[in-house]
Structure formats: structure tokens, C-alpha cells
Design a protein that fits this description.
The chain is of the alpha/beta class and about 230 residues long. It is built from nine helices and six strands; from the N terminus they run ββαβαββααααααβα. It has two domains: about 120 residues, no CATH class; about 90 residues. The chain is elongated, with a radius of gyration of 24 Å.
Length: about 230
């Protein structure tokens, strides 16, 4: 069994057993008490034993673990306090991701892959509107049409609304009022950058489960700083 991973030391050493790492955990503390460094240490430890890691980076400082550190009196003091004698500076294998494609590999998915249920929750649709979205997806599937991005979905909604009478017998009534409400929410989502998120190539989750040539787990870091700014705006 892989030995325990040292996280830090106060009065006693704090370690994590890899086999228990799928449990829930909370890192809490005031500003400057080491929350960010603790997360980085955990990520580096898992990477060294071949476990890929996914991290959301709000402040934009986690990417530094890709670079080897440098000598500093405080680091030396801390190593002596913990009792680590075989320490050496090294970087970790990192893959940077960004939904907007500005600070890393873009993350995208298609409308079809998201599906009607998740999309309805994303748009905060009511039950009637969710039913309409479900019908739209069914019509597209039956006609062999791929819904890749927001433009595809908006076009499909318009087509279904213009031809609602023709679909009533087979699929049920399609409310034009609901279609209008959905279209407005799609426009709002597009204004928030949703048009960047939807499209091809779609993300394969296996991309987050990779190791490097030395069998170290890749640390996947998603930049969410811009997402946070958008959240504050809207």
C-alpha cells in the first residue's frame, strides 16, 4: 500500500492515506494561514503517486506549481521545523484549462451532449419550458440533426415554433410563448459568454485522467477567475 502523504505539521504531523482520499474534506482558515499552499501540496503529492488531479483556480495562483521553487529562508526554516531532509525543488506536470480559451486549453461541449435536463437547469426553466426543450431535442434526434452550439438550438427552436402545428400530433403541443421565453434566456446566456462554451471539439473527460512520461499524474487547473467576474456582473 502507498505510504501516507504528508500534508503539513503543526504540533503533530498531518498526513493523508491515499486510499481514503475520496472522502469529503474541508480546508479552512483565515487569510495567510496556508489554505492555497495546502491544496498545492495535496495536488503535488497525488501527482507523484500517479493520480491525476483537477483543481479550480479562482485567484490564479495554482499554476505556479508547474515551476520548480527557489531557495528562501522561510522555506528552509519550515523544512527544518517539519523535519524533511531529502527535499528538492521540482515542478509538477500541469495542464491549464480555461472555458474562454484565454489562459489555457478551451473547454467546450455541444448542446446535444449536455442534453435537455442539464440545459434546462442551466437556464433555470420552469416545467413547461423544460418540456418544450425536451421535445426540441427529440425532434432533432428523430430528424438526425446535431445541436452543436447556441445558434443551432435557437434555429431549431424557431423551426419548431414556426411549424408547431405539424408537430402537435406526434410530439404534443409546443407553446410559442415558452419558445419565446427560452430564446430570451439563450440570448442572456450568450451575452455571458455561453457561445464560447458550446461547440466543437467537445471535452473528453478522459483528458483529465492522464499521466506524463514518468507516470506522474497530470494536475489539471481550470482558471475560473473570469467566470467569477461574470458571476459578479450578472
Amino acid at each position: 500500500m502507498t505510504q501516507s502523504l504528508l500534508v503539513g505539521k503543526g504540533g503533530k504531523k498531518l498526513s493523508v492515506l491515499p486510499m481514503m482520499a475520496n472522502r469529503h474534506g474541508l480546508i479552512d482558515g483565515a487569510t495567510g494561514t496556508g489554505k492555497t499552499v495546502t491544496l498545492q501540496v495535496l495536488a503535488e503529492n497525488f501527482s507523484r503517486i500517479g493520480v491525476p488531479v483537477f483543481m479550480a483556480d479562482v485567484k490564479g495562483d495554482h499554476s505556479e506549481i508547474s515551476k520548480p521553487g527557489t531557495e528562501h529562508p522561510k522555506i528552509t526554516e519550515r523544512l527544518n521545523t517539519i523535519g524533511i531532509t531529502d527535499f528538492s525543488f521540482s515542478g509538477s506536470p500541469v495542464a491549464l484549462w480555461d472555458i474562454f480559451g484565454e489562459q489555457g486549453h478551451p473547454i467546450r461541449t455541444t448542446i446535444s451532449e449536455m442534453g435537455p435536463l442539464l440545459l434546462s437547469r442551466l437556464l433555470n426553466l420552469n416545467d413547461t419550458q423544460t418540456g418544450v426543450i425536451t421535445l426540441i431535442f427529440r425532434i432533432a434526434d428523430d430528424d438526425g440533426l446535431l445541436l452543436l452550439d447556441l445558434k443551432d438550438l435557437r434555429s431549431m427552436l424557431q423551426y419548431a415554433g414556426d411549424n408547431s402545428a405539424a408537430f402537435t400530433t406526434e410530439y404534443g403541443k409546443i407553446s410559442r410563448a415558452s419558445i419565446g421565453a427560452i430564446q430570451r434566456k439563450l440570448l442572456a446566456l450568450e451575452d455571458q459568454g455561453g457561445d464560447i462554451f458550446f461547440g466543437e471539439p467537445a471535452l473528453n473527460l478522459d483528458d483529465f485522467l492522464q499521466t506524463d512520461e514518468n507516470e506522474n499524474g497530470i494536475i489539471n487547473i481550470l482558471s475560473v477567475r473570469t467566470l467569477w467576474i461574470y458571476r459578479m456582473k450578472f
